[in-house]
Design brief:
With about 80 residues, the chain is an alpha/beta fold. The chain contains 2 helices and 7 strands. It has one domain: Flavocytochrome B2, Chain A, domain 1. The longest helix is centred in the last third of the chain and has 6 residues. The chain is globular and about 30 Å long.
């Protein structure tokens, strides 16, 4: 895992828009979803990159956390 640390403000910069990579945080870990076709443009089923999505993936995602296993980890998320 990268040593980079993100908070709400810094993570928001990685929204997949205007050439920025698309990152999402789940349970304190920041994942790079840039290369995932379903996250094109930083959007996926009404969710936006650059955000902390633990509640969304745990309560609303049909695939749950298993989809995170193959994503690159880019750092950790702190409040």
């Amino acid at each position: 895992m990268s040593n980079e640390t993100f908070n709400q403000t810094t993570l928001a910069k990685y929204n997949g828009q205007d050439g920025q990579p698309a990152y999402v945080a789940v349970d304190g870990v920041v994942y790079d979803v840039t290369g995932v076709a379903a996250w094109t443009g930083g959007k996926h089923h009404g969710n936006l990159a650059g955000q902390e999505l633990t509640k969304v993936i745990d309560e609303h995602s049909p695939h749950g956390r298993k989809v995170l296993q193959n994503l690159p980890v880019v750092g950790k998320y702190t409040d």
